[in-house]
Specification:
The model has no long low-confidence stretch (mean pLDDT 85). With 92 residues, this protein is mainly α. The chain has a domain at 36-91. 52% of the residues lie in helices and 0% in strands. The chain contains 3 helices and no strands.
Length: 92
């Protein structure tokens, strides 16, 4: 079988990394398993289909929206705690 790629194009084969930030790969993210009521799982699936976004991206956006709606004091507490937890996760 011959290689039909144009050698002048130095593109990598496959999909580009799809992480939340430049250069990150989703496969390197910690995994989370959650249980959802059937209606919410159906809504998440429908949102993903209609928007073309991955389900994890919809959940990340929902968390960010929830965070933005918190009072300033609570946001500061969440920021401090999440930074400590992130450090603990990175060390593990």
């Amino acid at each position: 079988m011959t290689d039909r790629r144009d050698p002048s194009k130095n593109r990598r084969v496959g999909r580009p990394p799809a992480g939340a930030r430049e250069g990150e790969k989703v496969k390197d993210y910690p995994q989370l398993s959650i249980r959802l009521p059937t209606d919410l799982k159906a809504r998440l699936t429908a949102l993903s289909e209609v928007t073309g976004l991955a389900q994890w991206r919809i959940i990340v956006e929902a968390i960010n929206c929830f965070f933005r709606d918190l009072p300033a004091g609570d946001r500061e507490r969440v920021d401090g705690l999440s930074q400590r937890l992130e450090g603990a996760i990175d060390e593990a």
